[in-house]
Amino acid sequence: MTTLTVKDLLPEDGTKGTLVGRVWLPQANGPAVVAVRGDGVFDVTAKFPTVSALCEEDNPAKALAAVKGERIGDLEAIVANTAPDGRDPKKPWLLAPLDLQTLKAAGVTFAISMLERVIEERAKGNPASAEAIRKEVTRLIGDDLSKLKPGSDQAMHLKQVLIDQNAWSQYLEVGIGPDAEVFTKAPTLSSVGTGMDAGLHPKSTWNNPEPELVLFVSSRGKIVGGALGNDVNLRDFEGRSALLLSKAKDNNASCAIGPLLRLFDDTFTLDDARKLDISLNVKGADGFVLDGHSSISMISRDPTDLVEQTIGKVHQYPDGFVLFLGTMFAPVKDRDAPGQGFTHKRDDIVTIAAPQLGKLVNRMRTSDECEPWTFGIGALMKNLAQRKLI
Asked: How far does the signal peptide extend, from start to end residue (predicted)?
């Protein structure tokens, strides 16, 4: 991992928006909630012990603006000290910009990714079979379902046609049916941030990044801001069986979120988030380059619908939650042998970017090679109590 700079982190408009992060403070042996401003990084933990608490405010951006905080350093120096290689443990470094929120993810929310999930299922996790199946599935279903509203009469008619042709799939059920797929991505506090290594299960031989918008939602169901995310996916595990979803999605360092949380304010709104174009770049040590993108404007279900299907009378989140919205990106470019498609290799550098949210940069390693996750909810509560912050 090369040393990151502020250019590798901030949105195109710099610090004009309301930017929130978390920084590890060696002198406190724990994390700080910080406001990232033009004149530095400011610790606001005395007012907001957790990002979750800040997101519970009626107007989080306004509440943060009213707090001066304690300046802990320049963003440039903190960013440069974040990557695990060469990190000085006596100096601050960036963390993922969330803490007590539950980590949720929506799947099969774009037509093109829905088709790839069907292909995975039929290939039984074998990438060599994917190309032939892709052609057959496209022949039966078509390649443009973007205008098909999930749960509509038209969608239900298509469902019956596909059932009659023995072409129905559980992925089509959540892709065009009335109920969205929403699952728990990873344990609370387990996310890695920008500059850190992201993890792949060491037994996986077919996997890919998933560039996504991550919404931050309060316990009342109010969407308060967004960040970028990589919902790292193991195509071979999930392709073998949907019951292996937890193993395909939840491994050490397999949930990357960052670089910062941008709260909604006059410079960035939910409507802006709905129009985001998210880019992906993968650079391998072998010289391989993969580019892709995901346009939130092409999502099959509106973000508010996905949030409403996640929280309500049947499920509550007292500390709020974050929600990965899914991706339209599905890598089919061959990396090695023809027909084998894409899979990660050790030391791939993955950059997920959006003009309004900056860049999330991670190096890919196997999960057992990544820094182990040791600082959980109990450790956070103990640390904040010792610092007399709660």
From this structure: none
